[in-house]
Amino acid sequence: MAVPNANTAPLSEYAGDEVSALVLDPGWSTTRAGFAGEDAPKSVIPTHYGVSSSDSRLFFGENAIHSPQANLQIKNPWSADGIVEDWDTAAKLWEYSITSRLTGPKPTHPEKNGLNDDPNGEAMELDAQEEVEKPLTENPLLMTEPGWNPVKAREKYIEIAMEDWGVPAYWLGRSGVLAAFAAGKASALVVDVGANITSVTPVVDGIMMKKGVQKSPLAGNFVSNQIRAMFKQNQVPLTPHYMVSSKTAVDAGAPSQATYKKFETAPPASYRRLQEERVLTEFKESVVQCWTGPGKLSNGTNEEIAKSQPPRPFEMPDGWNQVFGLDRFKVTEGLFDETAALEDDENAKPTKAQTIPAMIQAALNQVDVDQRPHLLNNVVVTGASSFLPGFNDRLNAELQGMYPSPRIRLSAPGNTIERKYASWIGGSILGSLGSFHQMWISKKEYDEHGANIVEKRCK
Amino acid sequence: MAQSGIKVAAECVTAYEELKSKKAFRFILFKISDDGKEIVVDETGKEDDWDVFREKLISSKSKDKRGKEGVGARYAVYDFHHTSGEGIVQEKPGLLSWIPDDAGVFVKMTYAGSKEALKMALPGLAADIQASATEDLEYEGSVRPKVFKRL
């Protein structure tokens, strides 16, 4: 509970009612930003960014990173573990997500904006010796963070906000707790299937049970890599859009007859990989399916049943096309059954502990026995990768299999926006409440207590 | 304080004490005030019939941030009674939060994010039931086993 003690109690409450707060929900795949009180984040930008190999300039945003350039390397500031690695770039990217669509860039200094130029050519005397204005001095900022964020990272978040951006007030919320609240639950087991990481967060009475938080790489990118492995096995050519100049229709399985674009210097491999990822996303959205259970895909006659379901066609950007039957189930099976994961020199087999059912078990084992049935009755599913068709049915079947006696209930908003942006929406509502003003850490408090104040005030 | 910063009005504690010590009510319904600042008493009732209470929860309304009324959420304290085979009566007040899955996200967020404040303001609660679907409000099937665990 964030009960301020005498040392950290607000000295002067920040009057957050007058200006809308900003809400920033940084993820591995996208960075979401918007004003508190709005229903969805207005600014959703890719977290991948481009860096020029000639002059190290940084490029942010959808348009900048998706056009092919010979010297544009694509990178991501997050580590594979789901913690920010490159803080300098993360801070710039996050700032861009806010200033590009929401607050606008800071005004040019009055000396240089042309409005104060003396017609006689002499520079006007201005009170120009002030400090350079920081970019976000107007609005309080609410940020979300993953449940495993180490103390150092939490402190870094508030430092960036207070010192680099000059925000007047700040608050940091655990994304699992925000997602539970947004689903109407003070206690819940939050299963968040993201791009880079799937996590399981037990929340009891509004508090994240830190010891119980589990994470694993069996998430959206894992499924992409399984698809890549399957494509390799079946000699499916993965051709991203930017390479194709025009295509003609060909028969299923026949070689493509497209004309390809010519590049003097081909864009770097990191660029191609990001563009391939977009094709894989289309494939996930239109072809891939989770085996819904009961039982694993490899059990008994399950594969036969899966095979008997109508196959789905897919066409590559260059016109190559094929139908996919059993394979469209196989690429997701590893999320639940490590022995079924496709393996090659680029894809090591996951461990059992990394599978989603095992993570749920591990999370529950860290929670009081009395709470377990309650949490199983309140499983909240969130994250964009949970939209894989059949995912919820399978998760439900796995849980029923592991915990036959208590009632299992999954709650996953059918509303796409609410499921994809659960934590942002939770933060947006909290930050818009009049009552929330006493929760903000003001600039003054930060100056007085230092970055460690987040540990006391944002539990 | 709960994470929403919403506070508990003194009248909630008073009503709870009256239920506990004087058995003045069988149940108390609480809601978040329309100005969103605090949790207040919505209604008290003396009816012995669980279904009367249940019906009140199911038909409750709450306002979203634009002031539009829709599916509602409530907190409640209910004085649960149980008579054993030997005729021994047990009475214990328990907290029940009713935040239905079909309520709007604003209502869900504010009620879930403020519940702790109420729970901490009312000492001596014997149960804490989180109900989000009408089946969670079935007395015999769902509620009683959670309140009287070993009976």
TrEMBL record, chain A:
Q: Which Pfam families match?
A: Actin
The record, for CDD domains, names:
ASKHA_NBD_Arp4_ACTL6-like (cd13395)
Gene3D superfamilies xrefs: 3.30.420.40, Actin, Chain A, domain 4 (3.90.640.10)
Coiled-coil stretches noted in the UniProt entry, renumbered to this chain: none
Record-given protein name: Actin-like protein-like protein 6A
Q: Where is this region: Disordered?
A: 102-122
Q: What's the family?
A: Belongs to the actin family.
InterPro entries under this entry? Actin, Actin_CS, ATPase_NBD
Give the top-rank taxon of the lineage listed in the UniProt record for this protein: Eukaryota
Automatic annotation (TrEMBL), chain B:
List, alphabetically, the InterPro entries matched: ADF-H, ADF-H/Gelsolin-like_dom_sf, ADF/Cofilin
On whether Transferase is a keyword of this UniProt record, the answer is no
**GO molecular function list:** actin binding
Give the GO terms filed under biological process for this record. Answer: actin filament depolymerization
Provide the ADF-H domain boundaries: 5-147
Q: Any idea which UniProt keywords this protein has?
A: Actin-binding
Q: Name one GO cellular component term.
A: actin cytoskeleton
Location(s) in or outside the cell: Nucleus matrix
Family of the protein in this entry: Belongs to the actin-binding proteins ADF family.
Q: Which PANTHER family match?
A: COFILIN-RELATED
Protein name, please?
Cofilin
Q: Which organism is it from?
A: Pseudovirgaria hyperparasitica
